[in-house]
């Protein structure tokens, strides 16, 4: 088999890790390895044998990645931790080198939070710690950011805090010392965080405004220490060695030495920037490309691409879960496809005109061909990206980054005056860049999931045009377009409606959906600098092409009304109904009835004329279609439950109930559970909450009365679909997207 064929075999063997609901056990992996070894003796099935061995390799890597999350939580652990990164305060990132007396290889990553180290911390220090470890557990919603997948792809499956820490080695590593010195030198410059991000990959100090601006203009890719920066470092190394070769005799001059020196410079620079995953992948790809060049054979771009991606996945099969890998690989594939299938024809005019047109051709190709991955990951595109990148790419590539790299080199060797000049020029170029970006209008455009098929149309159109399919089989192209447009034109059934309990952590946000319209019950929680609506609810609504007509607020606590202001800014015409009596709010008191999209809404609490505050003032609403119903209870507690049941209790019967107060033992009294007489109970809470909700006693109480129990710590987003034929519940973790990396790792019953 050829090397590209082996690479293709490896990539396809690792791909199933994206979709496997569970990882095979060790005995199954051993059987796969044995089968692969036995089949390797037959030439006709050798490719299948190789595929099985690569698949086993990927499964073993995945099992190794999740082992800490399965084994370490629960009891306290004595470990030797090496600090990899720290904010200098209470957030630290490290690797567990040793557990008790056993060394771990590869060393799993861990995030430590909430505590200062006994002495000032820095990267490179080694500490002996007594750890309390938690498995990573993120909020799981359809179309939202997948925290668990990201953590496992980054090999950081656990987090925790230390009970006791004793220093073993307090010396900072070379990179940390260099970064500290560089940060001190750059302290006086306005764009210091951006220069550190471009030069050292330190993006933590970037302000939210800068991140938002780069996202809106489609220039965020410039901040990643990836191909651009490391290729520049390799180019500078190559040029330096070529310059030195002018002083060598002719018999000592060859093309291999500059290539090897450039690769060495690229690897060194990747290490200097912290060997972050994009930088590591670029370094691996450059090494593979260098090896292919040294082989003396002529390789096509697609063969090089296959070998580079395969090398990355062979070194780290779990990287298949990384969205940044998908983005990088897809971008390179788009570049190859664009220049092979739609190259820029020879153009008249001067060098400057041709350069501008060439850059415009590049940006246009990247914008239309990256649509599928942009929509899948970011759920939108920047319409100003062509104009922004037309200026930003050459300015950053050929001016700013070389100035920063020169300053970093001079910071080691001097002279200081020349170094200061480099930093000043880099700072001024960044000031010019961001001034230009701020002049552009907000070009970000959200794209919902209905367009996931049509965004592939540019790829299909280019292929059909170059292959002349439109002349040979015109109906084929039309059929492909129709198939791609099917999700866009699929209409919702008028007899169906749904209720989605979003996974917002220790809060509540429920979305009632009918006829592509939405009504919200509560808006999640808020925290300093953000809220659930900004982070989750608004993107979720836009991704599902839903426009909210209104919000029902149960009460005033921030874990229920935290996202209200963000939602009102996004949809100012939205109505708000609550028992709070605030300006602009419609009332919510017992006895009120209203209709929305053919659904009946009935308020059962609080009483009219009472000052409704706190949990017991929660607006309790029943939603029904005449056959099935759901009772939304907010945070109502037992005293208010008893008063609510004192009259018209027969009207509280419902098919499902939203469990009051996140499953607290102060709510969900037995009379309420019996009077509702429902079939399923749904609770919203965070897994690691200080109150250990939902209470085990409450869960047992519901189950004893015949309810099926669902909660967001176990199920993630929970969706209930109603129709004339009945109803069904689907949870994201168990039914919609069952994946091995979505499992509830750690202690099964731990929610505190």
Word description of this protein:
By secondary structure, the protein is of the alpha/beta class. It folds into 5 domains: 3-70, no CATH class; 72-172, Beta Barrel (OB fold (Dihydrolipoamide Acetyltransferase, E2P)), CATH 2.40.50; 178-446, no CATH class; 449-489, no CATH class; 497-742, Ribonuclease Z/Hydroxyacylglutathione hydrolase-like (Metallo-beta-lactamase, Chain A, 4-Layer Sandwich), CATH 3.60.15.10. β20 (629-632), α23 (638-645) and β21 form a beta-alpha-beta unit. α9 runs antiparallel to α10 (277-294), α10 (277-294) packs across α11 and α20 (532-543) crosses α22 (564-570). The longest helix is centred in the middle third of the chain and has 29 residues, at 385-413. It starts with a helix and ends in a 16-residue tail after the last helix.
Main features:
752 residues, alpha/beta, OB fold (Dihydrolipoamide Acetyltransferase, E2P), 5 domains, eight-stranded mixed β-sheet
Unreliable spans are none
The coarse overall form would be globular
- Average pLDDT over all residues: 89
Number of strands: 25
Count of the domains: 5
Radius of gyration: 29 Å
Distance from first to last alpha carbon: 54 Å
Task: Report the sheet with the most strands, covering strand number, pairing sense and barrel closure.
Answer: 8 strands, mixed
Main sheet: which strands, in order across? Answer: 16-15-14-11-10-9-24-25
Strand content: 15-25%
* Tally of contiguous helical segments: 27
